[in-house]
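Researcher: Let's try something more involved. This one mixes different molecule types, so please make sure each is placed in the same coordinate frame as the others.
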Amino acid sequence: MIAVHLTVPVWVWFIFVVSVLALFVAFLFTREVLGADNGTPAMQAISTAIREGAEAFMKRQYTTIYGFSLLLGVLLFAFYAVTKDTHLAMITVVSFFAGAICSGLAGFSGMFVSIRANLRAASAARTSLNRAMQLALRGGAVTGLLVVALSLLGVGIIFCVFGGLNPADGYAAAKTVPYEIVGFGFGASFVALFAQLGGGIYTKAADVGADLVGKVEAGIPEDDPRNPAVIADLVGDNVGDCAGRGADLFESTAAENIGAMILAVALYSIFGIKGILFPFVARAFGIVASSIGVLSVKLKNEDEDPMVALNRGYYITTVLAAIGFYIAVRYLLNNNIWFFVAGLVGMANCFLFVWITQYYTEYRYRPVKSIAEASLTGPATNIISGLAVGMESTAFPVLAISGSILASFYCGKMALPGVSGAGLFGTAVATMGMLATAAYILAMDTFGPITDNAGGIIEMSHAPEEVRRRTDRLDSVGNTTKALTKGYAIGSAALAAFLLFSAYIDAINELIIKSPQKYGMLVNGLMVTDPSKLLGSVDISKPPIFVASLIGAALVILFSSMAITAVGKAAQTVIQEVRRQFKENPGIMLGTSKPDYGQCVDIVTKGALKAMVAPGLLAVCVPVGVGFIFRLFATNSNPTLAAEAVAGLLMVGTISGILFAIFMNNGGGAWDNAKKFIETGAFGGKGGDPHKAAVVGDTVGDPFKDTAGPSIHVLIKLLCTVTFVMAPLFLK
Amino acid sequence: MIAVHLTVPVWVWFIFVVSVLALFVAFLFTREVLGADNGTPAMQAISTAIREGAEAFMKRQYTTIYGFSLLLGVLLFAFYAVTKDTHLAMITVVSFFAGAICSGLAGFSGMFVSIRANLRAASAARTSLNRAMQLALRGGAVTGLLVVALSLLGVGIIFCVFGGLNPADGYAAAKTVPYEIVGFGFGASFVALFAQLGGGIYTKAADVGADLVGKVEAGIPEDDPRNPAVIADLVGDNVGDCAGRGADLFESTAAENIGAMILAVALYSIFGIKGILFPFVARAFGIVASSIGVLSVKLKNEDEDPMVALNRGYYITTVLAAIGFYIAVRYLLNNNIWFFVAGLVGMANCFLFVWITQYYTEYRYRPVKSIAEASLTGPATNIISGLAVGMESTAFPVLAISGSILASFYCGKMALPGVSGAGLFGTAVATMGMLATAAYILAMDTFGPITDNAGGIIEMSHAPEEVRRRTDRLDSVGNTTKALTKGYAIGSAALAAFLLFSAYIDAINELIIKSPQKYGMLVNGLMVTDPSKLLGSVDISKPPIFVASLIGAALVILFSSMAITAVGKAAQTVIQEVRRQFKENPGIMLGTSKPDYGQCVDIVTKGALKAMVAPGLLAVCVPVGVGFIFRLFATNSNPTLAAEAVAGLLMVGTISGILFAIFMNNGGGAWDNAKKFIETGAFGGKGGDPHKAAVVGDTVGDPFKDTAGPSIHVLIKLLCTVTFVMAPLFLK
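Model: All components are placed in one shared frame. Result:
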């Protein structure tokens, strides 16, 4: 029987080999993409402008982010020094930096490829839809693979480096190391928050600015080369969607990985080190499945809908991931089939989220149609209707998450009846199931900005109508995949956060158990943990916990407000610049002189970086501040008051975050497609009054779906990781 | 010493005498208002049309509501019959009907006066601003006094009838009766939900319909008699603002009263029956204070700002209420000064809410100005900016509520150190403090629709410019008071809900303690309550509780979506009708023939009543459904699973409700005043493009601030009372 040979070292090798192989596959995709034909000089000129803009922004953005990270790392060390545990302080800070660096690396390298893939996809579109689609997807897959592989490799290496996998002590340290490396998740969250916020503000400020002056005031079409902000707009698609979502999912996978390890510690007596390795192995199988999925995508003929081909690849990925999951359960979780079922629950949740998102954001269905119809009576009814659709769209995802959490919880309980922690491990397994296809989903997501850019390049280089039709088809598919990924991202963020709550409570209690001299009581002359001092519940019926929960929910809303306002502020600077160029250089509109694209790129870069600071700091400071303030009221008999309050803040903040993110993502997506629906000729088509009303809705939806909404995904996980890392400081 | 004579019967007499006196004062105000000059025949004709429309709507609305109530009463009896306690079933159902009837009575009688006061205020405005203001305020005070007095009287009589005040048994039943009469609060909530929803949908459907066809399509001014929907619009001000808010605050006071009594039961060993009487006495003093406050309002001269005079009355009311509060604490709560401080905390919270609401909704301050400025770049930026302001405006109220809850909780703890339940009683006392001025606030609120209608009557009857200026001044003050009352209503709803949570948990545990044979254990051969079966916490870290909490938060958002959509649907019917009339009868626009106002009133009545059903049923069915479903998973060792899940739904639903209501109320108010600010001449003034953009924002804000937002206040309390009444059925 083969099982005999599948010892722990074999699995460890498997994990590392797959991660490295994934990086190699990413390299092959990169070579393939870069080696493809790169079009006419006109196309190259545009692509170069986009690339330079994106790289300039990314460089400045990451410089800022790493500046903050450095500061925070020092603060973190200082905070921990108070607890006098310099070993833990060191591990935390090193993990923090590792997480921050890996996240940045994944985002940056992914971007490197995608801003080059746009040109190749555009060039290929001149001859073959299939080839263009493949290049865009494989360019996107570089981001997908890098994100997941670097997350796996990063957590794995950190875990090993700090002694988590030491056969010499019989893997005893594996029970404590997972708690200590949460800093990795925090580092990833911290970078992701600013990456998503900065990118999200950039993309929408450029978009709104370009549209308001270009389309509305000057009456020139979208992606018109005469618009000075057009390059900034195309840059935005990359830095917002591609880099932002990459950082977002990097964080989800890292946080889920660590959270699941912590929950596996509770089951150490049953699965031993294998339970702790399980999340890695499940993820590794997911990478293999995703790579094959990406390679399998091919149009049956040039007339096939690219979305059908992408979905086919997704189904293949899901089936392969499920098989891998089964193998992992078989060999690592004692072939306990209930855990396999829990994993399937996670995959089903993924499907549900994708379907629901489609229903609420595609114009084939009632919601978007109702918005388009409401445009007949003007912008006000369009807006009211869009807001109502966005709000309504929260209901089914909530039922899906609720069902998944409960079903996987009961799977866990059925798997190991009577074992405490088994139910929660079931939810962890479901999260792994949901995230198993992350690399493929990210490839589809990054496909979006690549095809969007390809369309822009084709448009601006005045390519023939037939080519434009091809890129338009790809672009429209890209819009769909971007919307779906947002659904996926918030669904997985919700599950990952739920995992981290449990891990947070475990971590608090671990700290209490570790200090019997402080939190203990004398039993027969022996100092043991006083069970009444443990954090047994997060009881929102207590006034302090209720108040902290209320603050958590309000934090999300204030954060959204700040993110939206930031877009408006940054957009104002773009508007002024575009107006200035039109006024000072009338040749631009006549087509006789070229606008100064670089100036717009520069202005929106500065604006976005400045605007991302306030909401970012708010997200970090509020939970920490609440913890510190409530700690003042903690007593020796109730040392966990602040820790419990922060848990309330975290959980209710997450609930509020899930709902607000879905509301904003779907509302924005629905407005966008209501406009597109009218542009297909419905309700008077392009140029009519209903279309103008729909453009208003689309503009309102932009900061919703591309700035505030996705930033909330990251906020949710940041709240979890920041509180987790600060946990020791919340105890009296 | 006088204290010797202030025995329990004296206080009981005091309560009933004050209630009856308040009804008498309301009668005197009514006589004064009805006896005032009622203007020219032209004015009377308009007022009659408004009155008939309002009465027709109210009659049909209450017929529908009481139909539902009857059905629900029967269902309630049937549900309770399952528990085999027919005595309790009877009390619950009788209380339910009593609450429903008192709420309806208060709303209907208040409306009776206010739809007549509009004409008298309009008539008085022809000669004196002061007299017009006084008539409008006293007309509004009838609603205020009726609401508070009927709530006091209703709860008081029910309490006595069911034996709560029986000196023969040494007031022993006072410890159980408060739990049994929660049905009163449920009845009031149930009526309030439909009253507010129906009224809110009516008012905005008529408003949006009248504006979109009249102002936008036909280009005629607001309140133009040629608009067929103009009377429906004026009717809407009454049925939405006046009747809706009246029912809302009736519910708050009733629910707070019963909740506070339940919390006082926990302190029975300390205060005895006096603690249970305290909420009544504090309320009675509040009525006295409010009556004097209303009578004191008078302009110093015809040029004084009416808002200053109204504020003066409010300060007088607050000071008198504080003095009454002190007396009540002195004689009923053992002169324990900390409880007086808790009451002051509640009053301070009231002030804070009013200030914050002013800051976010008046155009003197940054937020509204920023929306007006954003209108320069069109409707999209106006909307984005308004949404951001609405979201931002949740932060400070949350801090105010948080501070009030914590401060009053600690006051309670300081008042009775070491006594369990003292802290929560402190928060109850703060709620009483906040609600002490309810009658005055309601008078100010109803002042709004009365002056709005008076303005409409003056406008439509072509009165001289000078008179219009007077009614415009009053109307603008009325807009402010309406906005402030919404802040007050949500602040008090939040505190009242917090009170009811605690009471709900008490009630669950009371049920468990009452049934030792079911939930008990044998100790020394004696069946006693098993403490492990009590509902000790509402632990949202447990998956089922977290899921229920998530559903609670989503419920609020789905409910908002349905309320907003309902306005749109009902408005569509009005739009079609107005267009039809304009088309079929061209004489209307020429001013040669009269439009058919009655038809519009009839159509919007039908539309609003139909549209209120779905969101109303959702609000009742979801908490009950979640309770029943989770009950299936409860086990004998954990009989409170469903009760705990419902508590989570309730609390997180309340958090989400507080935030959404503030967001919608303030966002809507800010949009409204941004438009008004531009109309004062800023950014190009009336008719310019920024003004058009601001009109879009105002229209979007309408269903926010007048339908969904206020309905959420009611929803919050309905959730509390429905779960409370159903509590016995959630236990295994």
